[in-house]
Amino acid sequence: MTDEVGREAHFVQSLERGLAVIRAFDADHPELTLSEVARICDLTRAAARRFLLTLADLGYVRTDGRMFSLTPRVLELGYAFLSALSLPEVAEPHLERLVAQVHESSSVCVLDGDDVVYVARVPTSRIMTVAINVGTRFPAYATSMGRVLLAGLPDDELEAYLDRVKLSRLTARTVATPAALRTELRKVRAQGYAIVDQELEEGLRSVAAPIRDRGGAVIGAANVSVHASRNSVESIRRDLLPQLLATVARIDADLRIANPRRTRHRVG
What we know:
Elements: H1 13-23, E1 31-33, H2 34-41, H3 45-58, E2 61-63, E3 67-70, H4 75-83, H5 87-102, E4 105-112, E5 115-122, E6 137-139, H6 144-151, H7 155-164, H8 178-191, E7 194-197, E8 204-212, E9 218-227, H9 233-255, H10 260-263
Protein name: IclR family transcriptional regulator
Domain HTH iclR-type: 12-72
Keywords: DNA-binding, Transcription, Transcription regulation
């Protein structure tokens, strides 16, 4: 059953109007008068006043008697949503924004044993001979995300990995010895990112950065992958790395208020 404007019978118009009052405030309008709120929300002054004073009583709005503004308590309204999200759910909107900026594919991986496993991906054009989907696995040593994740391991776990790993030459450029890999991982740990140049597949270059939880532990990695014919290592470092690092910083910020038990993604 709907009303004369097509709304279902359960629709609570007062709730809609109260939320509209909150949304009236934004970066361009951090403070508003009663009349401005009424105009933006298409309310009478009397209705706008009731909503604003109710929000003030609840702690979501403050006023000096003339101007109204939101309080930090409105963050609680989004916290419940963010706190229920998993790592892929937190990361994916940020990957979509990054891909729209750089026009290259971006993914998030976690470490599972000695492999990386894709848990989120926003592709553009296909640049690898093998299709990559959520659940795809690659050996960690040959990928930029894998190296970021390995570099984030505690020293004892990293040494155990280096002792057991079998390094297959996937291309002529693939790292050949545990000693060379150890040196590369020390570099990655020091600089905070990894660039891999055609070690997983000829023609594929990628750059990755770590995703950290609220305690600073590396729980995932995000990357941008490109075709070698379009991007040199220098252009990746100059043009793509800054935007990737900014994206990871936004993911980290969201994870700081997300549920830590859900953001530690489990495979299988």
